[in-house]
Every structure is written in C-alpha cells, then in structure tokens.
Amino acid sequence: MSWFSRLRNQFRENAVSKEISKEMQFHLSEKVDDLIGAGMPPAAARREARRRFGSLAYQTERTRERDLIGWFDTATADIRYALRSLRSAPAFAAVAILSLGLGIGANTAIFSLINAVMLKSLPVSHPEELVAIHRGEGSVLTNPLWEAIRDRQDTFSGVLAFGSTDFNLTAGGEARRIDANWVSGDYFATLGVRPIAGRLIAKADDYRGCPGTVVLSDAFWQSRYSGDPAVVGKSIALDGHAFEIIGVADPRFFGVSVGEHPQAFVPICSEAIIRGTNSQLDHRSSWYLQLIGRPKPGLTREQINARFATIAPGILEATIPSNWPADALKEYRRMVFSVLPAATGFSDVRVAYGKALYVLMAIVGVVLLIACANVANLLLARAAARQREMAVRLALGAGRGRLARQLITESLLLAALGAALGLIFAWWGSHVLVRLLSRSDRVLSLDLGIDERVLLFTIGVTTVTGLLFGLVPAWRAGRVDPQAAMKAQGRGVAEGHRRFSMGKALVVAQVALSLVLIVGAGLLLGSWRKLATLDPGFRRDQILLIDADIRGAATPPELRLALHEQMLTALRALPGVRSASASQITPIATSTWNDLIRTDGFTPKSDEDAVVWANAVSDRYFATMGIPMLGGRDFDNRDTQTSAHVAIVNEAMAKKFFSTPAAVGRRFQKEVGGNWTAPIEVVGVVGTTKYQSLRDSAQPIMYFPRAQESAVAQYVSFELRTSGLPIGIVPNATKAIAALSPRITLDFTTLDRRMAESLTLMRTIATLSGFFGALAVLLATIGLYGIMTYNVARRRNEIGVRIALGAERGRVVRMVLGEVSRVVIAGTLIGVGLSLGVTRLVASFLYGVTPTDFVTLGASVALLAAVGVAAAALPAWRASRLDPVAALREE
C-alpha cells in the first residue's frame, strides 16, 4: 500500500478497523465453507478454520500495521492520552503552559525584532545580489563622489544612491512632517521595484535643473488619498514647493533603510529646488548619500574591490574639497572604496539597537531556562504521584522506552501548547517593544510578520524546550521499581529524600539564574535612574523648545538675523513666558558643532585634544536655560558685527585651556576653512552642561553671540521658560510667529520630553530587564514553594514521628527552613560567580555603576534570600501544625 494511502487511512481509523474486521471474517468464512464442502460437519469446520487461520487478533493487528503508519498511529494515541492526562490536572497544566508561554513568547518576540532588524532581506528583486559601496569604515558619501562613481564604474549592471530627509506638508505654522528619501534615477530599476499606480522615478528624471517629481509610498497614498489613482499627475506641496505625483510604489517596498518607512521618494536633483542656494549637490563636504550596486553577472566582491582600487585615485582627485587643511586632504586622497553584502540593506536602528537586542535575547533565554527548570520540577513531582500508574503499565508488559516516549510526548505537547500561547504573546510583545523604542522624531517601522525564519526558530525553541524539561522525568520514570511502587506503603523517608534530589538541583539552578537576572536588572535600572535624575547643568523643567524654519518666508540673507530678532521679541511678549532666547543648537539634540582652537599656554596632545563644542546663542540664553554665570557678563547689545569678537566659555573649557576658572579677558583663536580667526576675547564663564548626550563627561563648550555670526542660517531654535505648562504656549506662539510671516513653519517639543526620549533605549532595556528579573523571581518562588510543599508531604510520617517523640514545633519550622536555606545558599553562591562574569556583557549600557557593583549584588542576594524564606514559610508552618496521630495512622 502506498504511503499516501496509509497516511489517508490515519484520518479514517474507525472505517479502516471495520474494513479489516470484515476482511478477517470473510477469509474465515471462506475457510469454513471450504471445510464443509470437503465433508466436515459445520461445528468442526469452524473450529478447524480458526485453528488454521491462527490468532484473529494477531492477524487483525498485522493487517492494521500494513494499512496504517505504525509510528504515526502510536504517536496520535500518545497525544490523545497526554491530552486526557493534562485535562485531569488543570492546575498543573495551566501553570506549566503559562510559564512556557511567557518564556517561549519572550524569546520569539525578541527574535522577531532581531529578524526584522538584522536578518530579513529587503523586499526587492534578488536582494542577495546587492552590495553596499563603502569608503573605509563609513558608508555615507557626497553627491560629487556619487556622480564620479556612477560615471566611472564598469562593474555594476545597476547602481543607486539614496539619502534620508523629511518634508513639511504645511505652508506655515505648526509643521506636519513626513519621512522621505532622495533617490537617484536608477534607484527603482536597480532594485527591481514596480509601481502599483503611475510610474516610478527613472534615469530621465534625475538631472541638474530637473522639475519636482515625487513617488509616494503605498501607506501614504492610502492614508492621505484613500488609494485614489486619480492623484497621479496632481501636485503635492513639499516644504512649500509643488511636486508632481508621478506614481505609487509597491506596498511591500519600504526603502532600503531598515527601521525607516519613507512616505515619499524624490530625485536627488530636486534637492536644489528645496534648498535653493544652499543646495548640497556640489558641496564636497556634505556627506548624506549611501550607495548600493548590483554587480554584473560573474563578478566577485574581490574583483569589484580591485577595480575600485584602480579607479579610486581619479574619483578622489576629481572631488577634492577646496577648503580642507592639508592634513585632511592627504587623508582624503588615501580613501579606499570597498563593497560589502547589502541583502539586508542599511539601518541606523541596527547600529543603535543591535547590541541591546542581543542582550535582551540573552536575558529572555535565561528566563526560558528558569521556566524549563520550573516545569521540570512540576513534572518530577507529578511523575512521583504517577508511580503506581507507571508500575501497572510496566507490569502489563510496557517497555521502559515506551513509558519514556509517552512522557516525552506529554512534555512536547506542553511545550507546543506553551508555544501557541507564546506566539500570541510574541505578536503583542514585539509591537509593544517597537513602540517603546520609538521616539516622537523617529517612529520605528519594522516588518514583524512571522516568516519561515521566525517559524523555524519557534519550532526549534519549542522542541528543545520540551526535551529539556521532559528528559529528566522520562528518565526517572524508566527507573521505577514496579514491585516497590505497587506496595500500598511503598514510600519511605530515605526513598523520598533520594527521589527528589534532582528537584533540588533544578531549584538551585533556578536560584542561580534568577540571581544573574536580578543583578543585571539592578545595574540597568540603577543606571537609568542615575541618568534620569542627573543634573545636566541646566534646568530641564518648564522649557518649550521651538525649531523654526524661515525658508518659506524667502528672507534675504542679510535680513535673516533681523527676522530672528523680531520672532524672539514676539515670543518674549507672550503671556506666561518668563524668559526666552534663541540659539543655533539646543542641548541633547542630534545636531552638533565643533571647532579646532588654539591659545597661548596650552599644547594639545593631538588635534582631537584641541576640539571644542560650540553654539551660537542670543542674550538671556543662560538665564532661560538656568545655566549659572560664574564670572563676567552675558551677551548684550555691545556685541555686533562691527565690534570685537567675543565668546563665553564653560568652566570645563576655562580649566582645560586656561588652567583657571577665572578666564574672563583671556583670548583664543578658532580654525575656519583652514585659517585661524582673529583673537576672540572671553567675556564670561558659565557652568558646565551636557551637550549632545546625558552620558557626556564634562566637555569644553564655547558660546558665541548670534549677532556676530557671519552667515545666518534659515533655521533657528528658541527656548521659552514658562510659568505654566510649556505646551499651553503653543497656540499663542504659533499666532505670534504667523503675524510676522504665515510661511514660517514651527516644530514644538519640551526640553523634558527631549531628554526623556534621549534615554529611550536605556529606559527600554532597564524596564524589560526589570520585568524579566521579576518574572524570574516569581518562577523561582514557585519552584521553591513547590519543592518544599512536596518534600513536606512526602515526609509527613517522619515529621509525625518527630513531633510524637517530643520535637518542638519551632524545631520543625527550623528544619524545613534549613532545608530551603541550603538550596538558596547553593544557588546564590553559583549565581554570584555567574553574575560577576555575565554582567560585564552589559557594561556599555551602564552609567555611574560598575558591572561588579557590590551594593547591587548584596541587595540582589538579600532579595533572593527573602524570597526563599517567604516561599518556604507556608510549607514550614504547615509542617509544624501536623497532627502526629493522623500522620502515623497512614502507616
């Protein structure tokens, strides 16, 4: 019989059994008829036919084996029996499935993120063929470099460039921004992406002086235009400029930067339309493009790298920046191009969160091990209660291997049910985690769909988990002595101690692993608390930040500073504004500015040692931000374009470069375009603050008056200290700026929010580690409680004898607590050793504490000890309240 027929018969077992029975009866009747025809009496013929036919049950079983797949039939029977067994113990099944569901679900959730960020290929044609073009260790290039590579390369059948940006959809007032990409003309053709409406950007769309065209993402098309195909050919305003919508991209395509989901794609040449005279198309120091190529058939990466080595000198010579110092130009000429696999695309999220995801993967792996130990303990206790059942099955002829297979089947079934619950938890948890990692200015967009990789991971984890906690109980079941187990009074004191030593070992492992998680969670939570409560050198409360873009106002460069001053004056006049200032950069932001400086009396160890962070600010900036003035004066109307240039420095810069905090009157120079400026006089010293990150050490910062800036940007930031809630100022601020020009666009946030969002990753890791640490403690508590309850139950006779012989109840309590103390101490000693080694893996996430922080270690040990005592308290109290007469009567 074919395998297909046998497999089909598995789903019609009753019908097959009836058919086999009819067939056996038919053959038996034929034999009887033959014997009667030969002259034998009917009764004798039936007896003789049965004798010749042999055992009817044996023949039926042999036929059944030929018509069915034997192992499949046995396995389904085992599964049905396991289901009945679990249904008969609902409390055990619920605890085991929930423990496994949390463990497997957490692992699947974190792996889903790792898969989406690290492993999943781009949704393009043959992503495995793509390579990224790098320069040294970086991947960002200038537009002149891109054009030189595009025009000189001969190793790619297609090559593209792209860069991330955003556009404002409003003509003025509060901004509404969308993420977008600058893309080269061959972008979509090289990737093999198709449109679902209209057409995509082609090479003919990307040339100097091109008109504004845009391709929309499917998500943006659906949300803004309800999927109306008639929008193709119409215009959309991007940063106040009309762009023709020429098509909509495939809904599966999200770009080539994982974690981002651009809603619009515009040709690189359109950058000149948006930025006008500030266009970066010809700037040889503006690094914002990344390159991907599809090699010609048959070419290897080594061959492409060799070809790049040949053409690189010409490319670099043609794109040399004009205003770089000699040393920098020498480094530029030594730049090396190479290609790396790009099937998974680029990703800032991968760089920022990659290590954190692997740390979380290790944490949830430990949680799963603890859950496995917990379930194994439950199964051991259950197996001990089922010894008579196993003994009966052995006595009836079942092999020890058959019993072990049955118990392994039950374990795998538990794991499968836990995995089913875990998948629900994983779907919910992965989406929650993405929201936790997102910020208001960067919302993560990841494909968290369950693909074959996630499915195989879940199946693998489920199988390994089921075997991990099921092998020990199965092995123990095979060692059951039928004769001893069948005795009504077969349990003894010594036997009980020996029988459950494996359970104690599992609890020791739980305690050790739990301590590792508690210590790690304590370190991470402590670091987050220190960062969240850190004094950054300024007051973060009641500060509204406004980022203004005046490009829409079309203000000439010479009038920009005056417009900024008018905006500042209008904001200072608003009700509820106590103080206001303007600056080029606000603290804890993504934008930075630094310069090389020199001064008499300071000899730098290297160029890096002479680099100082910088900012250009208005008067009252330090008062608004709550930065203390330690000496000298603030900027005022004496500081103009025609007056001597001045600066205010922070205390860290004063001490480093002038060897004294009293630096007022000292002078320094800074490098601009390879030349040194005229001496700049220090007119004030302020307190040291954080600049780009709360993790920054005390770094030198210099402040310049905005009134003395030679080139005033079209972007400016305002800081408003308010008397009430900062967000309440937004409507009036919007109206005040609109009165000056309705085409100025504004972005609002609070300094508190910006600082909180700068700790998003730290907060997420600390929160999750704390949650999983608490879960580990809960599982360890259940494990300790379970083993002590079981041990007390098995030792009822012994405890009854002790009490009958005069043992005090307090001594019984101490005996039980002493037993749990030994388990906890053993687990703690192992856990301390593991913690001192493992916590070094999270050292890069720590702030203000070391991986070997003994305060955290001591507190974790104390917490675990308290949990151990609490878990054993109820079983100990029950043991002390035992009635010796009732216990002895059981004998």
Based on secondary structure, the structural category is: alpha+beta
How is the biggest beta sheet arranged?
A: 10 strands, mixed
Helix content: 40-55%
State Rg. Answer: 38 Å
Number of helices: 29
Average residue-wise pLDDT: 86
* Principal-axis shape: globular
Number of strands: 23
Describe the structure.
The protein has 29 helices and 23 strands. The chain is of the alpha+beta class and 891 residues long. Residues 488-500 have low confidence and may be disordered.
SSE blueprint and pairings:
Blueprint: H1 3-9, H2 13-37, H3 42-53, H4 56-67, H5 70-87, H6 90-119, E1 131-135, H7 143-152, E2 156-168, E3 173-174, E4 177-183, H8 187-191, E5 195-198, E6 213-216, H9 218-225, E7 235-238, E8 241-249, E9 264-267, H10 271-275, E10 290-295, H11 301-318, H12 326-333, E11 337-341, H13 348-385, H14 387-395, H15 400-437, H16 452-477, H17 482-486, H18 493-499, H19 501-532, E12 543-549, H20 560-572, E13 577-583, E14 594-598, E15 611-617, H21 621-625, E16 629-632, E17 646-650, H22 651-658, E18 667-672, E19 675-676, E20 680-686, E21 701-705, E22 715-722, H23 730-740, E23 745-750, H24 751-758, H25 760-794, H26 796-804, H27 809-838, H28 854-880, H29 884-889
Parallel strand pairs: 3-23, 4-9, 6-8, 15-21, 17-20
Antiparallel strand pairs: 1-10, 1-11, 2-4, 2-10, 5-8, 6-9, 7-8, 12-22, 12-23, 13-22, 14-15, 14-18, 16-20, 17-21, 18-19, 18-20
Helix pairs in contact: 2-3, 2-4, 5-15, 6-13, 6-15, 6-16, 7-11, 13-16, 13-19, 13-25, 15-16, 19-25, 19-27, 19-28, 20-23, 25-28, 27-28
